Amino acid sequence: MPMENGISVPDENQSSADFIKNEMNFDVDPNDPLTKASLNDHPVNEWMDILGNDQLRKKVLTPGQDNCRPNRSDMCVVTFTGRLDDGTIVEYEEELTIQLGDVEVVQGLDLSLALMNVGEEAELIVHPRFAYGSLGRSAISGKTNLPAIPPDAKITYNIILKSVHMETDIYELPYEERRRIGNQKKERGNWWFSRNECTLAIQCYRKALEYLSLTGESDTMDDRKSSNSESVSDADLQVLLEDSLIVHNNLAAAQLKCEAYDAALKSVENVLRCQPQNVKALFRKGKILHYKGEHAKACSVLSLALKIEPDNKAIQQELSILKKKNAKDASKEKNLYRKMLGAPTDKKQDIKSSSNNRKLPRKLTWSLLGGTIVAIAGIVAYKFAS
């Protein structure tokens, strides 16, 4: 390995993958399609199968600056046009700023941008799975007036990566800007949630909370955060808190849908610590406890929610289901105690009672039959005697 100023540099005959694996101790699979795409430049007008499954293809139309690809979380300024197979323009953005990796555009664009150099123009063919899927997208009115995207539509994009710059430190941003970006990411999370893409929704909600949270986990950031907070009024901090609680509530809903019950419970508790009578949070907590099998606790939480909103049909329905399950749980628990004490369980008593009920008609039948035989015998004897 050649050295320059005491630092090892890659050999001309060594691949990028080999250098990363041997010198940087990263485990790189050189046969992985995405790894190949990210480590290699590609000739102009040659199609590249980014994922190796023909669902996301890229062709360089105009090369950009060498070694100027964006990294995750970088801010990218892009211009792009999306067309259906029949040529209909269904997407158009000019000088749009997005944060790479935050799924602020469809996944096909997000993945492809990571493989573009600044100044590059490329053509992308995006399979429905990485575009608008089986739901499509409704028409957009206003300045753009874009038509609807039908379900399962393949989209061809022409995209230019205009510029790239690093993400600004969140705690150096003015309050209004932090709130704007945080709520923008929340809205994107809501969009993914409405499409049942809960994993992507969770990703957006978590990023939104980075902008809307008042404090963080890192001790090294405390001084900067506290000094920044001093310049923000109490009223502004209250608004920021309320925005973050909405995101926590939405995050809990997405985690609940993904069956990540413990994580969802933590999210909903963040809301209830500040707003103990938040009905949405109480309802979601009740559902989480229900799915975790903690029926008695769930009943208690939902009963509290129903006191706050007595006419809420969703809470009434959930509570009705839980009360039935609680009755079954109580019956099972009672039988368990009977069994421990050696007493017959309700089930055994039911079987015994059922058995006795079956025996009673049989005894009655034989008794009636015996009486009939005796009566007939008496009549026959009387006739012979006379």
Please tally the β strands and state the result.
8
User: If you average the pLDDT, what whole number results?
Assistant: 81
The geometry reads as elongated
- Tell me the helix content: 40-55%
Strand order of the largest sheet: 3-4-7-8-5-6
From the N-terminal CA to the C-terminal CA, the straight-line distance is 134 Å
Structural class, please?
Answer: alpha+beta
User: What is the beta-strand fraction?
Assistant: 5-15%
Describe what you observe in this structure.
Helices cover 52% and strands 13% of the residues. The protein has 12 helices and 8 strands. It has helices at residues 16-23, 33-39, 107-113, 175-194, 198-212, 222-230, 234-257, 261-274, 279-291, 295-308, 313-340, 346-385, and strands at 3-4, 7-8, 47-49, 56-62, 75-83, 89-99, 121-126, 155-165. Strands 3-4-7-8-5-6 form a 6-stranded antiparallel β-sheet, covered by helices on one side. Strands 1-2 form a two-stranded antiparallel ribbon. Helix 4 (175-194) runs antiparallel to helix 5, helix 4 packs parallel to helix 7 (234-257) and helix 5 packs antiparallel against helix 7.
